[in-house]
Write a structure and sequence with these properties.
Shape: globular
Helix content: 25-40%
Radius of gyration: 23 Å
CATH class of the largest domain: Alpha Beta
Structural class: alpha/beta
Strand content: 15-25%
Bound molecules: cytidine-5'-triphosphate
Distance between the termini: 22 Å
């Protein structure tokens, strides 16, 4: 797939080299087109090194135009992706103004255009930007993101550029080409987040899971070309693009949704922090306080992971073990007891595990283990998916593996 990658002048431009690598991992050829303001944030030298092609930035560069004119470049592209896309470039595309090479290509191309907006949340929510977004979408331009979260300016809100992996996965899905991901043609079901077990109409039992690990895993699997169904408990995270998401509340709902989704699945990853117990009865009305103490009768919730692993046609099944002590011992116990193919053990408690952006993990399987040091959950998810794919093909037969041309993660 030929991708013209437009980079405009936002702080998220620092993620552009990573985005180029994620796109190339999937087999894309990249021609970078930078705007003048992008050069304030990231150097052409770095981008040329990762893309393997001289950068284009100037509409009036006679030599570059002679080699491939802007019209030829617009025709060469199977997709034009602008990431990060500033409010300014969105406005220019809406107006049809084409003062530079990138916006000229946007006018001249017949290929799909995708924009990954990145800007301060007030700028994103400004009625002018929102009106531009609506016009762009009406014209069939794909708006990828933005994500919600902490911003470079120190504020919180919608406007963060999505992670490079998620953008790459979306772009490949948009154009129907899934590239050469490790899990191309595979169905992966992932559970994520906490569950809520109702006590009465206003109260429930839950836990500290943020869903970040499960969402990261689902995105990483989609980025490797898998068809992903993400079954999510209540979380406060943006919807990852390029996958199907089913929202549930309780462990029971998650059990039902998982067994519906699991048909035809190759891999099941249970990253959700499912409640082990639920109130035996849900009060119809708000429970009133009377005595100094009260007792809540709890009933065991169905174990989703064990029930999937016990299916006749069980997919390659991966569980998680969140432990505060005896990590490897407890995790190996769960691996054996629940008859899993793999288990991801991670420490939880103060300063680690739940509701954080980073994590460390040890993955165990029958006859081996591998540890991953602390890294971002996005990075860890990518490593876990690569390891899972490797073991999946080892167990299910290497002849099922797609032919790959992957750029090593360590290059
Ligand atoms: N799990 C599940 N359904 C449940 C409970 C857990 O699918 N009802 C999955 C989780 O998604 C995770 C793994 O099982 O992959 C965790 O195993 P579990 O034995 O439930 O861990 P804990 O709840 O931490 O168990 P314990 O309290 O016994 O340590």
């Amino acid at each position: 797939m030929n991708i013209v990658l437009g980079i405009t002048g936002g702080i998220a431009a620092y993620k552009a080299p990573d985005l180029v690598r994620r796109l190339r991992e999937r087999g894309a050829e990249i021609q970078i087109v930078m705007t003048a303001s992008a050069e304030e944030f990231v150097t052409g030298t770095a981008l040329q090194a990762v893309s393997g092609k001289p950068i284009r930035s100037n509409l009036w560069d006679k030599e570059a135009e002679a080699a491939m004119s802007h019209i030829e470049l617009a025709r060469w592209a199977d997709v034009v992706l602008i990431a990060p896309a500033t409010a300014e470039v969105m406005a220019r595309i809406v107006s049809g103004a084409a003062p530079d090479l990138l916006t000229t290509i946007c006018l001249a191309t017949e290929a799909p255009i995708a924009l990954a907006p990145a800007m301060n949340h007030v700028m994103w929510n400004n009625p002018a930007t929102q009106a531009n977004r609506a016009v762009l979408e009406e014209r069939g331009i794909h708006i990828v993101g933005p994500g919600i979260g902490s911003q470079a300016c120190g504020e919180e809100g919608a406007g963060r550029m999505l992670e490079p992996d998620a953008i790459a996965a979306t772009v490949f899905n948009l154009t129907g080409g899934k590239g050469q991901g490790l899990l191309e043609g595979r169905k992966v079901v992932v559970t994520a987040g906490p569950t809520r077990e109702a006590i009465d109409p206003v109260r429930y039992i839950t836990n500290r899971s943020s869903g970040k690990m499960g969402y990261g895993i689902a995105s990483a699997a989609a980025a490797q070309g898998a068809d992903v169904v993400l079954i999510s408990g209540p979380v406060n995270l943006p919807e990852p693009p390029g996958l199907e998401i089913i929202r549930v509340e309780s462990a029971k709902d998650m059990f039902v949704a998982t067994h519906e989704a699991i048909r035809g699945a190759d891999i099941f990853i249970a990253a959700a922090a499912v409640a082990d117990y639920r109130p035996s009865a849900i009060a119809n009305q708000k429970i009133k306080k009377h005595d100094e103490s009260m007792t809540l009768q709890l009933t065991r919730c169905p174990d989703i992971l064990a029930s999937v692993a016990a299916l006749d046609a069980a997919p390659f099944t991966i569980g998680f073990a969140a432990e505060t002590e005896k990590l490897a011992e407890y995790a190996r116990g769960k691996l054996e007891k629940k008859k899993l193919d793999m288990i991801v053990a991670n420490r939880v408690g103060q300063d680690c595990g739940f509701d954080r952006d980073d994590n460390a993990a040890t993955v165990l399987w029958n006859g081996g283990e591998r540890s991953f040091p602390t890294s971002s959950k996005v990075e860890l998810a990518r490593n876990l998916i690569e390891l899972a794919a490797e073991h999946f093909y080892a167990v299910r037969g290497p002849e099922t593996q797609p032919r790959l041309s992957i750029i090593s993660n360590n290059d």
